[in-house]
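Lab notebook: predicted structure, single chain.

Context: the supervisor wants predicted structures on file for every construct in the current expression panel, including those that have not yet been purified. This is the next one on the list. No modifications to the sequence; it matches the entry in the shared construct table.
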Amino acid sequence: MKVAVGFDHAGFPLKSVVLSAVQAAGHEAIDLGTYNADPVDFPDYAEKVGRAIQSGQAERGVLVCGSGVGACIAANKMKGVYASICHDTYSAAQGVQHDDMNVLCIGGRVVGPELAKALVVAFLGAHYIGHEPGGERLARRVGKIHKMENGESVL
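Prediction complete. Output recorded below exactly as produced.
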């Protein structure tokens, strides 16, 4: 799988760890920057990762900013991008399995390198189960998210 990765200056210290974890898990990392620790704006990298997913260049993405929150908020403004901040492996996997999450957001000032590796592995190792037998309620819920994204009411 192709995975778009983006970092702001606060996430930059985890960049090599995340890129290595993506590759070690057998996936292709698409490095969308930043390329040094100079101050940059996290929405720029959220948009780059989001555009890669929207265009089909990447199936999933990983964003790392200081807390993970800003990148998550920015990424979720893009149609077809379903991002969540995850600082535990359960959420990183279940977000994909139950909610069809396609972007993992990590706080570079919150987690250390070993946890970052584990989060990437959990995220990339999971698959959406809403289309499998017994996954109807998950698919229904994700369908409601898509309706909301299109401005429709789910009530």
